[in-house]
Amino acid sequence: MQKTLQIRKFAIFATLSVLVIAGCGKKPNQSGKADSTKTMAAVDSAATVTKVPFALKEGKRLFLHYCAVCHGETGDGGGQYYGLTPSPANFTDKAFMKSLSNERLFKAIMEGSASVGKSNMCPPWGKSFQPEELEFIVTYIRTLSGK
Ligand code: HEC
Predict the structure, then answer these.
(1) Are residues 106 and 117 in the same domain?
(2) How confident is residue 147, by pLDDT bands cut at 50, 70 and 90?
(3) CATH number for the domain that contains residue 91
(4) Are 58 and 69 in contact (CB under 8 A)?
(5) Same domain? 37 vs 64
(6) What tens digit of pLDDT does each residue of 52-71 get?
(7) Same domain membership, residue 128 and residue 57
(8) Cβ atoms of 102 and 116 closer than 8 Å
């Protein structure tokens, strides 16, 4: 009886030790996390978007997902959905971007290009995004002309 108890105690001790060792084994994972943060930071600085990281990161993600197919990954209007007439707006064109106020950009995006007297080739996006997501997109688009 006494012996069984001792064996049990040992078994519990052994189990706990294994758990503690397993816990220590998690450390490499934690530094793995730090690495991915580093990678994201590198992506950000590559796009010179370090100042308002979250808005620009989100803006970029949404732009690449929803707009780049027509406007191109760099925003130059050369997306995969080519051959559109007129061609998609070129957000890297400084003079063109300067001529558009933020209000104009928001209106064109939310209500579609037809709402600002252009063709109907850019669909209305107002119902697809939250207001702050639209701000992220406009903030990001503004960076594409190098300003
Ligand atoms: C189906 C292709 C297509 C998609 C997808 C698309 N666009 Fe467009 N976009 C166009 C075309 C084509 C024009 C040019 C319209 C014209 O000049 O008549 C345009 C023009 C614009 C303009 C300029 C409007 C102006 O004031 O002259 C803005 C801003 C714009 N798009 C934003 C966006 C954003 C933001 C997205 C993603 C949420 C998006 N577009 C997705 C095709 C597209």
Answers:
(1) yes
(2) low
(3) 1.10.760.10
(4) no
(5) no
(6) 789 999 999 999 999 999 99
(7) yes
(8) no
What per-residue string of b and e applies to 36-60 under the rule 16 or more CB within 10 Å gives b?
eeeeeeeebeeeebeeeeebbbbbb
Amino acid at 100: L
Examine the domain organization and report whether 105 and 59 are in the same domain: yes
**Structural domain harbouring 8:** 1-46
Domain total of the chain: 2
Provide the whole-model pTM. Answer: 0.73
Q: Read off the pLDDT of residues 7-26 as tens digits, 9 standing for 90 and up.
A: 555 554 444 444 444 444 44
Cα dist. 103→70, 100, 135 in Å? 22, 8, 11
Same domain, 30 and 52: no
Let me know whether 2 and 38 are in one domain: yes
Residues with CB under 6 A from ligand 1: 66-67, 69-71, 81, 84, 86, 88-89, 100, 104-105, 108-109, 113, 116, 118-119, 121-122, 125, 137
Query: How far is the centre of ligand 1, averaged over its atoms, from the C-alpha of 59 (Å)?
Result: 15
Taking the C-alpha atoms of residue 90 and residue 54, their distance in angstroms, rounded to an integer, is 24
Token representation of residue 79: 């997306």
